[in-house]
Design a protein that fits this description.
Length: about 475
């Protein structure tokens, strides 16, 4: 009975409130406002940004990893065919007072595949979806190496209000394919293999259609160059261009050219870099002292300093106080990563001894991020190198209990090699170093079974051809009457 009496009273109350609201609006004493989304005043009010992992960007997933905290956010864009691994020294070399994120584009690294061919516009949309879904807020400072320098220009053109500055690290130029082709000597019938390979690659960079060069990303370079050229001017956007040393004669991953041709291409490259510096009226051009194309690995401090410069400028424009270097609380410093044990396996492959060491470690905070490698004994062969490695693929839960990283060493020469390993976390705490020793014998002469099979088949075919030829010659020598 009480419920039956309450319902008419409730309806009457609601009706009275509605009439009062209408009456107030008519007399001008009430205002009607449409709620607008509020920009967060600080990281604490924003949706929590994801630190790393695979994230869906529309039917497929991209791998990303972030370190540090604070605005603006720095986005590291690798060169063509490269992964986030190439940025490890830059990503972990800052002071942690601003967020730095890297990722693997589709068809590369830990990310999933995407339909080919692909354009920079496709990739810009992928990156924007990744940042949105991971709650990684702008404004962004985009750092592009090589072909990544072209991609960040297209991203800025698509989302100009979200970009606070660009750092171009020995970045590509949309005209580089044709301009560098013109620096090669005229085509000759008997030119070297190195020249032929350079022509194939530069033709691809100019126009991927019909080129013999293939890349795993499946880029449409003709469309990409057109998209970069169609981008709107940068105006006074803060830009830092970092170019390779003009005295470094190496072209990473490319065959060696004659000295005169090499010098010509390096001159053209520096001219292209100067043109990039002219894209903005607010640009700075820095020349590396000794690095070649991979400045982020050879002179990472140049890139880190350039990023910090643009971060500070962006904060000044935003009226933000530059925070002290992280970590700010002592709790983050109260732990260090710790090695647990090593499980070693050996195998012989192609005549070489291979050590595969499974290194187990733990980190109570679950924020271990890099593995530092140092060679204490032994010497590397030309072309070999040691570098820092990201270990963010180990989840926080794994690290807090027991995580594993692998240390693989291929014996390419006879020597005793001692490798030092050290784990560093986001609070810049380092584990106690651990040494691994590799006793390497001289590599044995190795003949591939497929080569042996090929030789046997080749000799058999040669024997068959000789036999048929002998039969044919004998048949020609037999008198006509005896046939």
């Amino acid at each position: 009975m009480k419920q039956i009496l309450l319902r008419p009273m409730m309806y009457a109350t609601i009706l009275a409130l509605l009439m009062l609201a209408c009456s107030s609006a008519a007399s001008g004493t009430a205002t009607v406002s449409v709620p607008e989304p509020l920009a967060p005043a600080s990281d604490e009010l924003a949706l929590t940004a994801l630190p790393n992992g695979l994230l869906d960007v529309g039917g497929r997933k991209l791998w990303f990893q972030c370190v540090g905290k604070g605005t603006p956010t720095v986005i590291l864009e690798a060169g063509q065919g490269d992964t986030s691994y190439n940025w490890i020294k830059v990503q972990t070399g800052g002071d942690g007072s601003y967020r730095v994120c890297s990722y693997d584009r589709a068809n590369l690294g830990e990310s999933e595949a995407a339909p080919k061919p692909r354009t920079y516009l496709d990739m810009a949309h992928d990156l924007h979806a990744l940042l949105t879904n991971a709650h990684i807020e702008g404004p962004y400072i985009l750092v592009g190496h090589s072909g990544g320098g072209l991609l960040v220009r297209v991203f800025r053109d698509e989302y100009p209000e979200e970009v606070a500055g660009l750092v171009l690290v020995d970045a590509a130029h949309p005209d580089m394919g044709q301009r560098l082709l013109e620096g090669l000597p005229p085509i000759s019938l008997f030119e070297s293999k190195a020249l032929r390979e350079w022509r194939i690659w530069l033709s691809y960079m100019s126009d991927s259609q019909g080129s013999a060069y293939r890349d795993e990303e499946g880029l449409d370079t003709k469309a990409n160059n057109a998209q970069v050229k169609a981008a709107k001017p940068l105006g006074d956007l803060p830009v830092v261009v970092i170019s390779r040393s003009p005295d470094n004669t190496t072209f990473e991953g490319a065959p060696l050219l004659p000295a005169r041709t090499n010098a010509k291409l390096r001159q053209i490259w520096q001219e292209l870099q100067s043109e990039l510096a002219g894209l903005s009226s607010n640009s700075t051009h820095i020349i590396a002292s000794h690095a070649g194309h991979s400045i982020q690995r050879e002179e990472p401090e140049l890139v880190i300093d350039a990023i910090r410069k643009l971060v500070n400028e962006a904060r000044d424009r935003m009226g933000l106080t530059i925070p002290p270097a992280l970590p700010a609380d002592q709790a983050a410093m109260a732990h260090t990563p710790r090695f647990l044990r090593v499980v070693e396996k050996q195998e012989i492959k192609d005549g070489k001894l291979i050590y595969r060491d499974a290194v187990y470690y733990t980190d109570t905070a679950g924020d271990a991020e890099i593995l530092k490698l140092s060679l204490l004994s032994g010497s590397l062969l030309e072309g070999e190198n040691l570098d820092e490695r990201s270990i963010l693929t180990n989840s926080a839960d794994e690290q807090q209990h027991e995580a594993m990283i692998d240390a693989t060493w291929v014996c390419r020469s006879q020597d005793t090699f001692v490798l030092e390993l050290q784990i560093v976390d986001q609070a810049r705490n380092s584990s106690e170093p651990m040494n691994l020793t590799f006793q390497c014998p001289a590599p044995k002469v190795y003949i591939s079974p497929s080569l042996i099979i090929g030789l046997v088949i080749g000799l058999a075919l040669l024997g068959l051809a000789i036999w048929l030829l002998v039969r044919y010659r004998r048949s020609r020598l037999v008198p006509v009457g005896q046939q």
